[in-house]
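User: Predict 6,7-dimethyl-8-ribityllumazine synthase's structure from this.
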Amino acid sequence: MATQLKNLSDFSHTTVPNGTAYKFAIAVAEWNAEITGSLYNGALKTLLAHGVLADNILSIAVPGSFELTSAADILLNKHEELDAVICLGCVIQGDTKHFDFICDAVANGITQLSIKHSKPVIFGVLTTNDLQQAIDRAGGKHGNKGDEAAITALKMAELSAIA
Ligand code: DLZ
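Assistant:
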């Protein structure tokens, strides 16, 4: 039963688990669709590249990032077989307080949901000051956070399976 972690620095790039046995849902927000579309393509490509079967990936669109929490809740209630849900969105700072409300709501909502269902719900939501920062993180110079969300989902699905 006892397990020993190696030096944590050894884990910074741990092997990504093979996903053949796992089922995922991806919920993607339509707001800032040019960005969320890139996040989605990255997440999908990464899941497939790590062995997840196309038939085991359920994709849905929701109007905005605010709706990601309820969409993930609906998915987890309807599809008990899911190992994780990946939530993808992009909230860009504007002139009003909308940004703060949406970011707080989706971050807290996803956290609560994950605990409620005891399933990984992955926070793949960009929260940026401007469009350029979002472009940089959706396939630009800072990579694609959709890829990272998919990797996180794979690692957490395996953790749930073996813990
Ligand atoms: C209303 C709104 C605004 C102003 N900005 C964004 C945004 O940058 N990113 C995003 O995903 N959604 C935005 N929304 C829409 C909200 O997420 C939500 O769809 C509406 O408030 C309806 O609940």
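The helical segments are 33-49, 68-78, 98-117, 131-136, 145-162.
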